[in-house]
């Protein structure tokens, strides 16, 4: 019977340990693709929440939610991200009443945090129906008199 050299046993053991460590690391941390999907979903959710803050400011100033999201971008404001960070597709926006609206986005994964409400979402298209809130300390725009 042929004897296996010690260096081959050592090499096989080292490779096995490295493979086990890599597999355990991926199991604990998740795959790079999952990490990317989580990062993109976090950016989407942040964009939707920021859109909501801009809508609150618009509502405080005008007494109504905007009819389209493009009304939120103006010369005095930094450009608001109105498109998906990955696909470049615009976020969906629908007015429901003068003070309510919904914003929709497509997420790769469902939200993980148990206390994520009211921003909890599933994988795929999710919509967030919201009521605009008046921003304290922000004065409404004065009414412009009608031209004669």
Please tell me about this protein's structure.
The structure is a single chain. With 148 residues, the chain is α+β, with helices and mostly antiparallel strands. It has a domain of 95 residues. 37% of the residues lie in helices and 14% in strands. The chain contains 2 helices and 3 strands. Strands 1-2-3 form a 3-stranded antiparallel beta sheet, with helices on one face. The radius of gyration is 25 Å and the shape is rod-shaped. The N and C termini lie far apart (109 Å).
Descriptive key words:
148 residues, alpha+beta, 3-stranded antiparallel sheet, 37% helix
Summarize the structure.
The protein is an alpha+beta fold and 148 residues long.
The Rg value, from CA coordinates, equals 25 Å
What's the SSE pattern? HHEEE
- Which geometry do the CA atoms define? rod-shaped
Report the end-to-end length measured between terminal Cα atoms.
Answer: 109 Å
Query: Helicity level, as a percent range?
Result: 25-40%
What do the pLDDT scores average to?
84
Derived from helix and strand composition plus strand pairing, the structural class reads alpha+beta
What's the main sheet like? 3 strands, antiparallel
Query: Helical stretch count?
Result: 2
E-strand count: 3
Q: Outline the low-pLDDT stretches.
A: none
Largest beta sheet: strand ordering: 1-2-3
How much β-strand is present in the residues? Answer: 5-15%
């Amino acid at each position: 019977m042929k004897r296996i050299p010690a260096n081959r046993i050592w090499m096989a053991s080292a490779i096995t340990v490295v493979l086990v460590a890599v597999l355990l690391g991926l199991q604990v941390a998740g795959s790079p693709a999952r990490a990317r999907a989580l990062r993109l979903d976090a950016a989407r959710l942040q964009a939707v929440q920021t859109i909501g803050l801009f809508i609150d400011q618009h509502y405080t100033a005008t007494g109504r939610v905007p009819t389209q999201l493009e009304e939120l971008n103006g010369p005095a404001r930094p450009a608001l991200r109105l498109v998906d960070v990955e696909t470049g597709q615009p976020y969906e926006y629908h007015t429901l009443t003068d003070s309510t609206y919904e914003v929709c986005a497509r997420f790769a994964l469902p939200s993980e945090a148990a206390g994520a409400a009211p921003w909890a979402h599933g994988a795929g298209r999710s919509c967030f129906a919201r009521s605009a809130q008046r921003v304290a300390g922000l004065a409404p725009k004065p009414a412009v008199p009608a031209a004669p």
